[in-house]
Design brief:
Blueprint lengths: L1 H19 L3 H12 L4 H20 L6 H13 L1 H10 L2 H16 L1 H6 L9 H16 L3 H10 L4 H23 L6 H21 L5 H28 L1
Length: about 240
């Protein structure tokens, strides 16, 4: 039953990622944490997110801004080791609270963007990359700093989405290198990978038929429910 639900989660997350360009980890992380635990759920999502971003990056190769992508990746790499250390010292309950809080921060990123001031320059990519890299290693949810930087720096949407695939692959490889692979068996992981690729295929067909607004609404509904549940579960387990 767990594998069936995990397959559905991965397929949905991949569809959302293909339609909107973002959102795989936001959709997948909270349910996977609830299905497994705060360590395994994040590791599975990290591994599958690398696959998703690699597949999308191939099709968007010509639109990648390598200069900005490199700054974001290098900045994230600098904080990767401290982030991995945080994971080792936090208890499972605190990790769930951290993941839930990171997911909620992702969902609230739009409010932060609307309250922002002047446009950001390339130098601010270092700060955004460091924040995103830390969040990616600890929870897989690196969206908020990247989205804020992308919008405030007037980064063209097509180039932004394409470049993020490179950043996500790099962050994912670094995180897995520091934290290790999931404990889930290779057969189960292979099934999840197949469902991820299936989701990308469905998303490729649906992207012309499903309005982005509807896809984002579905993503937000799943993410809000998952993030709130993870945060509540971590808080309750910490108190009892």
């Amino acid at each position: 039953m767990i594998l069936i639900v995990a397959c559905a989660v991965m397929c949905l997350a991949a569809i959302v990622q293909r339609i909107t360009g973002l959102g795989f980890a936001l959709v997948a992380t909270p349910p996977m944490v609830l299905l497994t635990d705060a360590i395994e759920g994040v590791l599975i999502t990290l591994l599958m997110s690398v696959l998703v971003s690699m597949a999308m990056g191939v099709g968007l190769w010509r639109d990648i801004d390598w200069r900005r992508s490199t700054v974001l990746v290098l900045a994230g790499a600098l904080v990767a080791i401290p982030a991995a250390w945080v994971v080792t010292v936090f208890s499972p309950s605190w990790l769930m609270i951290l993941i839930g809080a990171a997911a909620l921060l992702s969902l609230l990123a739009g409010h932060l963007i609307r309250g922002s001031g002047s446009p950001l320059g390339l130098r601010s990519a270092g700060v955004a990359g460091a924040a995103a890299g830390f969040l990616h290693v600890t929870s897989g949810l690196s969206g908020p700093p990247l989205v804020i930087y992308g919008l405030r720096s007037s980064w063209a949407q097509q180039s932004f989405v394409a470049s993020l695939q490179v950043v996500f692959v790099a962050y994912g490889v670094i995180a897995i290198g520091l934290r290790g692979l999931p404990a889930m068996g290779s057969t189960e992981l292979g099934v999840l990978a197949l469902l991820v690729l299936t989701g990308l295929g469905i998303g490729t067909i649906a992207v012309r038929r499903i309005p982005v607004r509807i896809a984002r609404l579905a993503m937000l509904s799943v993410a809000w429910a998952g993030a709130t549940t993870v945060l509540a579960r971590g808080t309750v387990s910490l108190l009892v």
